[in-house]
Write a structure and sequence with these properties.
CATH class of the largest domain: Alpha Beta
Distance between the termini: 37 Å
Number of helices: 25
Strand order of the largest sheet: 1-10-7-6-5-4-3-2
Length: 676
């Protein structure tokens, strides 16, 4: 099955401090856009950004004259470690190392052709670092000025400038950022051009931050109030001040931008004071404790987004985190600042004591009852499942929050992938047990034969059954990625067909060697089908063998048109007879969120074919890409109703809110039909 990416959803940030809003027939909160959710969350609690990247890169031995943006390609481990340090210090958002990753700045180093690659890789590194840290956090794509002076003869041609911004934005979007931050701009005209290109490319939350001189004017002469008015008119989500002389000067500039509103928030990310050069290095004067002391003043001035810029470190972030948390504690005694996510009240479902998972092993000598999935399929219930990727860390908190979100949206079960694309992640069985134990939400676990020999496969299955995990998707698995484990070799004692046979024999009460296991197991066995595979004869021949080996349900790769579904059904009638598929089918759906996303999946991901009609629709969608992608998925599922027995939804870039919204819309439609 196709790999889903690490999570960076705004809904996890929103869930961390507020109970889900009650649904209303007038407007479902789930239908809010990412920008609306972001603005709503800023009204609930402050968002803490990280601090400087360049300061820490220099401290780790990167030369002063090096291209800092290139470090994501040459020393990715250094950048990843810095991201993790800020997350460990308590940051709610981390910025990509892309401040100067545009072709105008990169030309100085002869690297202008790598601009798109640098931005994409930087976003991926930040997302991976967040996943490893296991903290709820947003990944913000950082975009800085194009460089050069403000004299007209030095300005790049407007068309070339816009193209450079667009190139950077597209790279960041391909890498999976959750939001975008234009920062350190002193030229309002250039900043507005960058904003326009961002808004043409996507509808993600957007923060616009400026840098003012000692006279509290932009380099082009604009006042804070004038700049704020222009940016408000441009439709950004937050207006702010960053860099500059230090907290006090930035704070004064922020106050002069005017008060924040329900529509446009305020942000503040100052330098750690003025630097001085000591033994060849720049040393900033403002200590972490001072930044912590400044937090109440920042919030009182209306900033709901705070953080640091040049000279700040994870120690500064930690001090600010402690100050925000302290204000949160006071807020519970009457102040207005909301508590931190792990201190605030959760909804009843989230705060309930861990439940004992249903194991249903059956009486001695008897097979256990069918799984809930098997029962629903047998009853003709339309089943909805969403895929969840395990974390790349030892923490499961964010994964559980994603599962809660999907449960509240109305899924029947969730799928847990097994180190998709051959990258190391937490074991799928452990994640499934955690979800079923904490939330009592049924799981279907992907089990690949790539990493385990036959004995290990059987041992894993016996343990899974004992813990109540009885839905298995049998997969051969992707090859290990050399980037993760240079010496790792795949095992593949058996392939997916052989694994299905192993599970079927366990369901008969014996292992692969014919030895009794005490009583029959009760696994529901799923298998995969790629209806658009290049070699159709081979794919359908393997499906016949999978069903012959004992598979109970088919889960397809994502499809995007009724024609694709009808072609699949026609081939099923040819293969299996007039009745078509002999077992239930869950139709794979991967909602698109942008034209770039559609082209990437179509051209670069094996097993996914997106017809030209759908790709053209995404090109026309522009910034409405995510909504159009959801509408296309809903239309496909409505038009194929009765042809399949359920759907298997695959999030992209970990945007579980999009998948949850699709689930909510499906459930609402089903409820409306029942009412009729």
């Amino acid at each position: 099955m196709p790999a889903t990416h690490t999570r960076s959803p705004l809904e996890l940030f929103a869930l961390s401090s507020a109970k889900p809003a009650a649904r209303s027939s007038a407007r479902d909160p789930g239908a809010l856009t990412e920008r609306e959710r972001f603005r709503m969350q800023l009204r609930r609690r402050p968002l803490l950004f990280d601090g400087a990247m360049g300061t820490l890169l220099y401290s780790r031995g990167i030369p002063q004259r090096a291209c800092l943006d290139e470090i994501v390609l040459t020393h990715p481990e250094v950048v990843s470690r810095i991201h993790r340090e800020y997350l460990e210090a308590g940051a709610d958002a981390i910025e990509t190392n892309t401040f100067g990753a545009n072709r105008f700045r990169l030309v100085e180093f002869g690297l202008e052709k790598l601009a798109g690659q640098m931005n994409r890789r930087a976003a991926q590194l930040a997302r991976e670092a967040r996943d490893v840290a296991g903290r709820e956090a947003l990944v913000a794509g950082a975009i800085g000025p194009l460089g050069g002076s403000l004299r007209n003869q030095d300005r790049p041609h407007p068309g070339l400038a816009r193209a450079a911004f667009r190139e950077q934005v597209e790279g960041l979007l391909e890498g999976g950022v959750d939001m975008l931050v234009c920062e350190t701009f002193g030229d309002l005209e250039t900043l507005l051009a960058a904003i326009e290109e961002i808004q043409r490319a996507c509808d993600l939350p957007l923060i616009a931050q400026m840098t003012f001189g000692e006279d509290l004017l932009l380099a082009d002469g604009a006042t804070p109030a004038a700049a704020a008015a222009a940016l408000t008119e441009a439709g950004v989500d937050a207006i702010g001040v960053n860099c500059g002389a230090g907290p006090l000067a930035c704070l004064e500039a922020l106050v002069r931008t005017g008060p924040p509103s329900a529509v446009v928030a305020r942000s503040l990310q100052p330098n750690a004071g003025l630097p001085q050069r000591i033994e060849g290095s720049l040393v900033y004067s403002a200590e972490p404790a001072y930044f912590g002391e400044m937090v109440p003043r920042m919030l009182a001035a209306g900033a709901t987004i705070v953080g640091g810029c040049c000279g700040t470190t994870p120690a500064h972030t930690a001090a600010m985190r402690a100050a925000i948390d302290a204000l949160g504690a006071e807020g519970r005694r009457g102040a207005t600042v909301a508590p931190r996510p792990d201190e605030g009240e959760r909804d009843n479902a989230a705060s309930a004591a861990p439940r004992t998972p249903r194991r249903d092993v059956g009486a001695v000598g008897e097979a256990p009852p069918p799984t809930a999935l098997a029962r629903k399929l047998a009853a003709g219930t339309f089943v909805i499942s969403v895929e969840i990727d395990p974390p790349r860390s030892i923490r499961i908190d964010r994964t559980l929050e994603a599962a809660r979100l999907l449960e509240q949206a109305g899924v029947d079960l969730v799928n847990i992938s097994d180190s998709a694309t051959g990258r190391v992640r937490m074991g799928a069985m452990a994640v499934a047990f955690g979800i079923q134990h904490e939330i009592d939400l049924e799981c279907l676990v992907h089990l690949t034969t790539r990493d385990r020999n036959l004995m290990a496969l059987e041992a894993e299955l016996l343990g899974a059954h004992a813990l109540g995990i009885r839905n298995i998707l049998a997969l051969t698995g992707d090859p290990p990625r050399a980037a993760d484990q240079l010496t790792t070799r795949a095992v593949w004692d058996v392939d997916a067909i052989g694994l299905i046979e192993v599970i079927r024999r366990l369901n008969m009460g014996e292992d692969q060697a014919g030895a009794a296991i005490g009583q029959p197991a009760g696994f529901t066995i799923a298998c995969a089908l790629d209806p658009t595979a290049a070699d159709q004869d081979k794919e359908w021949s393997r499906l016949e063998r999978k069903l012959g080996a004992g598979a109970n349900v088919i889960m397809t790769q994502p499809l995007y048109s009724v024609a694709q579904v009808e072609a699949m059904l026609d081939r099923a009638r040819i293969t299996f007879g007039p009745g078509g598929f002999p077992v239930p089918v869950l139709l794979g759906v991967l909602p698109l969120h942008s034209s770039r996303h559609a082209e990437f999946l179509h051209n670069e991901v094996p097993g996914i074919t997106i017809p030209e009609e759908q790709r053209a629709a995404m090109r026309e969608a522009g910034a409405r890409g995510a909504e159009v992608g959801l509408e296309m998925a809903m239309d496909l599922l409505e038009r194929t109703e009765g042809l399949v027995q359920g759907t298997y939804i695959m999030p992209s870039f970990g945007r579980y809110e999009l998948s949850a919204e699709l689930v909510r819309r499906l459930r609402a439609r089903m409820a409306a039909r029942s009412a009729d």
